[in-house]
Design brief:
- By secondary structure, the protein is of the alpha/beta class.
- About 40% of the residues lie in helices and about 15% in strands.
- It contains twelve helices and 13 strands.
- The strands form two sheets. Strands 3-2-1-4-5-6-7 form a seven-stranded parallel β-sheet, with helices on both faces.
- Strand 12, helix 9 and strand 13 form a beta-alpha-beta unit.
- The protein is globular, with a radius of gyration of 21 Å.
- It starts with a strand and ends with a helix.
Length: about 350
């Protein structure tokens, strides 16, 4: 069996990390190729030497409608040529664009396309794009892999028979790694792209509310890059929180930050399946998150391994965050931490790959 994985860039991002973890595990028993769109970007994740990594040289600098249309057709052509050369049995499209591209490139072929969704159904905001995606998925894909059961109901009923639910595997598993001993302030951590989706403005407001509540024995570390970085830094400065919040750029060595943290804070407006929760929990970092659509509720068992707060209930979030900080200060958070470690292991790559094999082998 030959499997090809089509992705955009491999320079960062949760979906791209998962693609590489999945490819590495599948390559232990079968032939795997990865096609990435941009060869000019660095590859941020480990890729096994047994995997054939191909650059497709997509042009990401088109502006006019005509140039974009031509580039769209060129991409279909080069993807189809690669699939023909590799004689792929399956093509896994990572996120909507790659899934649609793979499906169209395989028209008339025996190659089976699996569309791998990384976000929830409504993350694609344009209704016409959603309709086109649904059309392509219905007629041209073998399976549609979603991340959560909750997302199934968002899809049209005529796609239900094609849907499978497979969680992402942990990109980093810290189950057997000990965190560093705390020496001072409670260590809060947030990991994610600096975009509107991640809700960093309401996170900063919560930190400001902590100070107003006379809770100051903490420091928040944010790890990530994105278009809003300068705006977020400005907002932190305006709130006079520079002594309480530090932003670090994205790094491949994220495990260092997990090892040096006590609480993971997530204030996203929406998610697909936020693997940063599972990864942090595998290190024993206790999470607190809004119960946004969709994902956090898959990881967090409220009051058992962390806190899940009703979406947009800022008052409750502040209350629970203060409670966690007090638990750390009074050394009463260990049971949450142990439960977080244990519950994260159902997302280990060994468990997830078995579910993938059910699709690929049957």
């Amino acid at each position: 069996m030959k499997i090809s994985i089509l992705s955009g860039k491999l320079s960062g991002g949760g979906a791209e990390r998962v693609a590489c973890v999945l490819a590495n595990k599948l390559s232990e028993t079968t032939s795997v190729s990865i096609y990435r769109g941009d060869s000019s970007e660095r590859t941020s994740f480990h890729i096994s030497e047994s995997i054939n990594l191909s650059d497709l040289h997509f042009n990401y600098n088109t502006n006019s409608f005509f140039d974009k249309a031509v580039e769209f057709l060129k991409r279909l052509k080069v993807v189809r040529e690669k699939i023909n050369v590799d004689n792929s049995d399956f093509v896994l499209g990572i996120k909507e664009d790659s899934s649609i591209r793979a499906a169209l490139a395989c028209i008339g072929k025996n190659t089976r396309v699996i569309a791998c969704e990384h976000n929830n159904y409504y993350a694609m905001k344009n209704i016409f794009k959603r309709l086109f995606r649904n059309f392509v998925y219905y007629f041209l894909t073998h399976r549609i892999v979603l991340l959560t059961d909750d997302d199934i109901k968002n899809y049209p009923r005529y796609l239900f028979n094609k849907i499978s639910v497979i969680s992402n595997p942990l990109g980093i598993n810290g189950y057997e790694i000990s965190r560093s001993e705390r020496k001072g302030n409670v260590r809060l951590l947030s990991v994610g792209r600096l975009t509107d989706q991640k809700g960093y403005y309401r996170m900063i407001d919560l930190i400001s509310d902590l100070i107003s509540s006379n809770v100051e024995t903490f420091h928040l570390t944010i790890v990530g890059d994105g278009a809003l970085r300068l705006d977020i830094e400005k907002y932190i400065s305006e709130k006079q929180l520079t002594n309480y919040i530090t932003i670090f750029p994205y790094t491949n060595d994220i495990s260092t930050f997990y090892c040096e943290s006590d609480i993971l804070v997530m204030t996203s407006l929406w998610e697909g399946l936020p693997m940063v929760l599972g990864e942090a929990m595998s290190f024993g970092v206790v999470p607190i998150a809004y119960d946004c659509p969709t994902g956090p509720s898959v990881f967090i068992n409220n009051k058992i391994n962390g806190f899940l707060v009703p979406d947009s209930d800022n008052k409750k979030f502040l209350q629970r965050l203060i409670e966690l900080i007090e638990m750390v200060n009074n050394e009463r958070i260990e049971s949450f931490s142990l439960n977080a470690r244990e519950s994260s292991q159902r997302f280990s790559v060994e468990n997830i790959i078995n579910k993938w094999n059910e699709i690929l082998l049957n």
